[in-house]
Amino acid sequence: MGFVFRLKQMKKTVSFFLFLVLLCKANLLLAQAEPESIVPDDDKFQEYFYESLKQKGIENYDKAIIELENCLRLKPNNAAVYAEMGKNYFALKKYDQSYSSFEKAAQIDPKNKWYWAGMYEVNYKTKNYSQAIITVSKLVDLDPKYKEDLMELYMNTQQFEKALVLINDLNENVGKSERRDAYKTQILLQGNFQNTAIDNLLDQISKNPKEESNYIALISLYSDKNESQKAIEITKKLEIEIPTSEWAQVGLFKYYLDKNNGQKAINAMNIILASSKIDAKIKHQVLNEFLLFINNNPQYAPDLEKAISYFDKDADVIVAKEVGKYYQNKKQWDKAIRYYEQVVKSSPNEDMETNLLLLQAYVEMKQFELVAKKASTLIEMYPSQPQFYYFFGLANNQMKQFKKAKEMLEMGIDYVVGDVLMEINFNIQLGEAHNGLGDFKKKEQYFAKANQLIKDKKSIVK
Length: 462
Hints:
mainly alpha; Serine Threonine Protein Phosphatase 5, Tetratricopeptide repeat; 77% helix; disordered N terminus
C-alpha cells in the first residue's frame, strides 16, 4: 500500500512537472510567433489577428476586416489593428474608411511613420493634395526623405515659392537632380513669380557662389524682363566666380556685340557653339544675332563659315535657311544655294518657302535645267501651287522649250488667285512662249494684259 501510494504521489509530481515544462514552451512559442506590433492579452486576440492576415493574403479583404473588428473588441486602442484595417479598406477602394483607420492608428502612436504614410497614400490616390501636404509635413519630421514628396505636392498645388525653398534645400543637402532642375526652370518661367524668383536666386548666389545653374537662371530672368544691364552684371560675376563657365560667354557675347567689339564677340560665340552644355536653341539665336551684326560689319564675314561648321550635324534646318537668306541678300547665290539645298535635303516635302528661294537662286545663277527639273518635281507634290508652274515655264522659255513652257504656264495660271504680281509674271512668260512659237498675235495679247495689270497695280498703290 505504501509503495502504491508513493508511486501515485510520484506520478502526480512528474505529471505536474511536465505540465509546467509544456506550459513554458507554449508561452515561448507564442512569443516568437506574434508580430512585433502586437502584444496579445490572450490567445483569442492572436487567433483573430493571424486569421485577418491570412484572409488579406488571399485577398478576402472583407473577411480580414471582420477578424480585425473582433480584435478591436478585445483591444479597442491597438494601433497595429487600425493600420491593418486601413490596408484592407484601401485594397477595397474604400478610401474614406482607409484614411480614418490610418488616422486612428496615428493618433494612438503618432511617432510611427508608417501610419502617416498610409494616410498619405490615401491622399495621393484620391488626389487630395492639400490634405496630403498636411500629412507629409508630419512625415518630414519623422523621416526627412519625404521632403522630395512635399516638393512634388507643392508643385502640384502651384505653391511655387514653397517648392523653390525645398528644391534649394534638397539640392544643397542631398544633391541636384534633373527633375528638380526642371521644376526650378518651370517655376522661374512663371511671370508673376519672377520678382520673388530673382530675390531667391540672388540669395542662392550669395550663399553658393560656385553654383552655375543659379547664375544661368537669373540671366534668363533678367533677359526676359529686358533688363540687359543686370543680365550683363550677373554674367560678369559668373565669369569671375567660375572662369571656365561656358554659359558666361552667352551674356558676354551680347555685351561685346553691343559694344561693337567684333573679335571678342566672335571668341565668345565660338565657345558657345562648341559647347555641349548650351542647348541648340540658344546657339541658333547667337548665330542669328551674329548674322545681323555682320550685315553692318562685313569685315567679320569670313568668321561666319567657321560658325556655320558647328551646325554641320544639326538636324535643325532653321540655321541653314537663315544663312542662305543672308547670302541671298548679299547676292552670293552660289553660297545661298548650298544652304538652301541642305534645308531641302533635310525636309523636301515640308518647307515650301525654301524651295521657292532655291528656285530663285538657281534662276539667278542661270541654272535653268535644274530649275525645270526641280519645279517639275514640286508640281507633282503641290499641284495647286502656281509658283512652281511659273518657274517651270520661265526655265523652259530660257532653254527654248517653248511648247513645254506654254502648256505648263496655261495650266498654272488657273491657280493664280488674288496675286497681281504673279499674274503679271505669268502673262509675261506666256507672251515669251508664244513669241518663241511664232504666234505673235497671242504674244501681244499677253504682253498687253501684263502691261494693263501693271498700270492697274500702280493706280491702286497711288
